[in-house]
């Protein structure tokens, strides 16, 4: 079975079939579906090795598997969305593990030598992130799920969820329910994501002239969340906003007026109000920005998405 057979079956040119298989983003959706239906009907299979020799592309996008913490890691939803979005654009996801920034950079080098991925998707970005600098210095295509914290000069494309907007919505929800002393349980200072989420809480309280001093930093565990909640309630807090579902679940043992962040399956199971991240959309936008760069098309510099407040408990005092 050849490309010519597929072209005749679909009623298109051989170049169109080649575009569908190698650069699907340049083909109209209706035509792409017709060609793919012909491919499926005829049982045509593409030789990945031959295609890479012909196009100079591996059609692989590399991303690290994140470690699970407290059984509430939401990264699997992002990874699932990334895999689906990449497949729709004619790419496959290459997974790897790493134990730290330097180890991940070593892995980049190894992957480039062994598999030649076309691009990388960075996750868990942080202040002074050397991974982004390493890729940028070598002009390797990449996108990050997470902002380049503290690097205003960074020019690489990125997608992120607006944590400050999320905790602002959570805090507003508690204010509207009648609370005036609202605490915040966060992570240790210096985390770009954690600091961003704390900003939304403090900004909202400050705009209402309410106390912004009821905040504690923790290691992010449920046990630490419970301990922080006990202290904050003792100091007069009547409701709490958590930087994550993990700390919020601990706080839920102390008071029912708690809002978490991430909307994990555990939060849904116990009825915790939480902020859901649009992870499927974030993954799709990451693929879009990266494949736009790979195809030489003009691309947005960044995308900032809003989380959604999922209300499950009545927080009224």
Automatic annotation (TrEMBL):
UniProt cross-references to CDD domains, sorted A to Z: HTH_LacI
Keyword annotations of the record: DNA-binding, Transcription, Transcription regulation
Molecular function, one GO term: DNA binding
HTH lacI-type domain mapped to chain residues: 1-55
Gene3D superfamilies per the UniProt record, alphabetical: 3.40.50.2300, lambda repressor-like DNA-binding domains
Any matching Pfam family: Peripla_BP_3
Protein name: LacI family DNA-binding transcriptional regulator
Native source species: Nonomuraea salmonea
């Amino acid at each position: 079975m050849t490309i010519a057979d597929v072209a005749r079956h679909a009623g298109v040119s051989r170049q169109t079939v080649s575009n569908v298989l190698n650069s699907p983003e340049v083909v109209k959706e209706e035509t792409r579906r017709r060609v793919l239906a012909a491919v499926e009907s005829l049982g045509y299979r593409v030789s990945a090795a031959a295609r890479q020799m012909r196009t100079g592309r591996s059609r692989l996008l590399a991303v690290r598997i994140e470690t699970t913490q407290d059984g509430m890691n939401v990264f699997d939803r992002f990874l699932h969305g990334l895999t689906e979005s990449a497949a729709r654009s004619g790419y496959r996801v290459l997974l790897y593990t790493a134990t730290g920034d330097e180890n991940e950079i070593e892995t980049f080098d190894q992957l480039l030598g062994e598999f030649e991925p076309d691009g990388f998707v960075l996750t868990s970005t942080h202040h002074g992130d050397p991974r982004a600098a390493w890729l940028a210095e070598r002009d390797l295509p990449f996108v990050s799920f997470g902002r380049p914290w503290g690097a205003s000069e960074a020019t690489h494309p990125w997608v992120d969820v607006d944590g400050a907007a999320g905790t602002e919505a959570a805090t507003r929800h508690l204010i509207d329910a009648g609370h005036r002393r609202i605490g915040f349980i966060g992570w240790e200072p210096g985390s770009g994501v954690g600091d961003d989420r704390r900003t939304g809480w403090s900004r909202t309280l400050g705009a209402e002239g309410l106390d912004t001093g009821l905040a504690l930093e923790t290691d992010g565990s449920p046990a630490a969340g419970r301990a922080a909640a006990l202290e904050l309630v003792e100091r007069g807090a009547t409701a709490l906003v958590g930087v994550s579902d993990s700390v919020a679940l601990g706080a839920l043992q102390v008071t029912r007026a708690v809002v978490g962040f991430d909307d994990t399956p555990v939060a849904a199971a116990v009825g915790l109000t939480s902020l859901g991240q649009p992870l499927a959309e974030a993954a799709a936008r990451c693929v879009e920005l990266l494949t736009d760069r790979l195809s030489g098309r003009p691309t947005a510099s960044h995308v900032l998405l809003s989380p959604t407040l999922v209300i499950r408990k009545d927080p009224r005092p």
